[in-house]
Structure formats: C-alpha cells, structure tokens
Automatic annotation (TrEMBL):
This is Rieske domain-containing protein. Keywords: 2Fe-2S, Iron, Iron-sulfur, Metal-binding, Nitrate assimilation, Oxidoreductase, Signal. Residues 1-15 form the signal peptide. It comes from Attheya septentrionalis. Residues 44-155 form the Rieske domain.
Length: 185
C-alpha cells in the first residue's frame, strides 16, 4: 500500500514538471530551428502601476500570454519573474519575499534570486519538498526586464513564446481528430 501511494505521488509530481529554463531568453539552436514563429521581444503591459504590491510583497500578472510574478523588494526595487515554481508549478507570486534579494517557493521552500532567477541555497528544503526535490534537478525561474510607462508596469517578453509553445500541442490535438490543419480526412 505504501509503495502504491509513493508511486502515485511520484507520478503526480512528474506530470507537473517543466523543462529547465534558467533565464527568460536563453534558447538553443535546436529550439530556434523548431520554432514556427520568429522571436518578437518587446515591452508589453502587465499590471497598472497602482496595483504594484507594497515593498516586501509580490503579485501576479500576465504579459504576452505568460504568467508573471511581480515582486517589490523591501528597498522598493521592482522585479519580474516567471510565476511558476519548479518542480510542480505552484504560483511564485504567493511566495515570501526576503530581505536577501530572494523570493521563496510557498510550498516547497526553494529560494530564487530576484535578479537572476537562479536557486539560492537548498533545493526544496521543506517537508514534502525533501521528498519531491530529490526527484528533480534544481531549476531556476525566468527573469524579465521591467519598466514603468503610461500608468502601467511593462515587462519585456517574447510575445511569440506562447504561440511557439502551443504550436506543436495544437497540431497534435488537431491531428488526432483529423488533419493537422484542422480539417477532417
């Protein structure tokens, strides 16, 4: 029985894992050649500046179809990171902002640098994190440049990233129902 519960827990955690992406725009030549849409990096609106969190807090927003964690550190500096904590993708925006320039995963306890998105300290140090963390390699979160403009906080993202990510998924779903172009045979 214990083995069955453990196997279910491992399978459930593996279903929510992502591939490591240490920074927002690092890509390999393989991923560039497989992309259907050319990268289009630009600043897009994320949240109104009136909704910026208080120093030492975080909130979430969407920019270019990507979930973004907006953090204001205790000194008032603003950062943008991917809002999905590895290895199980819970929202980073629910995390605790530290005075040491980090934000901690709200469930597994991993700390991520606000400047680089890299793991700082122990990987998955909390209770269940010790069990799940051992199954996965330490992985950072992407970081994004931010600026304020016209009452909005803007985040620099590849606006075609989501399209490229979904391109293969949707063609596979459509192909299972008919032709890859959405028409039936």
């Amino acid at each position: 029985m214990k083995l069955a519960v453990f196997a279910t827990l491992v399978a459930g955690a593996a279903a929510f894992t992502t591939s490591p992406v240490p920074t927002a725009f690092k890509t390999s030549s393989t991923s560039l050649s497989m992309a259907k849409y050319k990268a289009n990096v630009k600043y897009v609106d994320c949240i109104p500046t009136t909704q910026l969190p208080k120093p030492g807090r975080a909130t979430s927003g969407v920019a270019g179809g990507l979930a973004i964690c907006i953090v204001v550190d205790p000194s008032g500096s603003v950062y943008a990171l991917g809002d999905k904590c590895p290895p199980v993708n819970q929202p980073l925006s629910f995390g605790k902002v530290g005075a040491d320039g980090t934000i901690a995963d709200p469930v597994l306890g991993t700390k991520f640098s606000l400047k680089t998105g890299e793991v700082v300290g122990a990987w998955c140090p909390s209770g269940i994190g010790k069990l799940l963390g051992g199954l996965f390699d330490p992985t950072g979160v992407p970081t994004f440049p931010v600026k304020q403009g016209k009452g909005m906080l803007q985040v620099q993202v590849d606006v075609n990233y989501k399209l490229n990510f979904e391109a293969e998924y949707w063609s596979g779903v459509l192909d299972a129902q008919g032709k890859a172009d959405g028409k039936y045979y």
